[in-house]
Specification:
Length: about 80
């Protein structure tokens, strides 16, 4: 836990009555499960096409052959 998070807890949350702490916990749980923020689930399909520019101009057959040659050198 970062010191900033610990300070927020000590200064604001720890002093709340138990009932309000539970309400806050429920709000955070709901936000993490359903919110659009950092807790948002992503689909693997969002990665489609990512980094394709790296492979432009690379012949797949030549690339695989080069890798195989490197593996044989290591063996």
């Amino acid at each position: 836990m970062s010191s900033n998070t610990k300070n927020i807890y000590e200064e604001h949350i720890k002093q709340l009555p138990r009932e309000q702490q539970v309400q806050l916990l429920n709000i955070l749980k709901d936000e993490l499960e359903n919110g659009e923020g950092n807790g948002k689930r992503h689909s693997i399909l969002e990665l489609h096409g990512l980094g394709k520019e790296i492979w432009q101009g690379v012949d797949p057959k030549e690339y695989v052959n080069k890798l195989r040659d490197e593996w044989e050198e290591r063996a």
